Amino acid sequence: MRKILIGLGIVVVLLLAAVVAAPFLFKDKLRALADKQIAQRVRAKVQYDPNGIDVSVLHSFPDLTLDIKNLRVIGLDSFSRDTLAYLPNLRVGLDIMTVIKGQEIKINTVELDRPDISLRVLKSGRTNWDVMISDSAAAAKGQDTSQVRLAIKGWQVNDGHLRYEDLTLPFRMEARQVNHTGSGDFASNVFDMTSKTTAGGLDMAYGGVAYVTNKKLDADVAMQMDLNKSLYTFKENQVKLNDFPFSFAGAIGLPNATDITYDVTFKALQTDFKNILSLVPGVFNAQFKDVAASGQVAFDGYYKGTQNALRMPGYGVNLTVTNGRFKYPSLPQEAKNINVKMVVDNPSGFTNNVKVNISQFHLDLGPNPVDGNVAIDGLEPMKVDGRVKANVNLAEALKVYPVPGLSMRGQFFVDATGKGTYSKTQMPVVNAAIKMTNGYVKSDKFPAPIEDINLSGTVVNKTGQVNDTYVNLPQFHMMLEGEALDGRLAAHNINSPVFDANVKGTVDLTKITKIFPLEGMTVTGRVSGNIAAAGNMADVDAGRYQNVKASGTVQAKNVTYRSKDLPQGVNISSASGTFNNNQIAIQSLNGTAGTSDFAANGTVSNYLGYLFTPGQALKGTMNVTSRNFNVNEFMVDPVSEKSTATGKGAPAKADGVVPIPKFFDLVLNSKVDNVTYDNLKLSNASGTVTVKNEVATLKDLTFNTLGATFGTTGSYNTQDLAHPKFDLGLNIKNLDFQKAFASFNSVKALVPLAAAVQGVFNTNFSVNGEMGQDMLPKLTSLSGKGLFDIVKANVLQSPVLSQIASLTTLPELKNLSIVNKIVDAQIVDGKLVVKPFDLNVGDVKMTLGGTNSLAGLLTYVAAINAPTGKLGNAVSSKLTQLTGVSNIQGTDRVTLGLNIGGTMTSPTVKLTSGSLKDQGKAIVTNVVKTKLTDALLGLATKNRAKTDSTQKATATAQQTSQEQLNLEVQKRKLEAEAKAKQAIGAGLNSLFGGRKKAAAPAPAVAPAAADTTKK
Question: What average pLDDT does the structure give for the chain?
Answer without folding.
Answer: 82
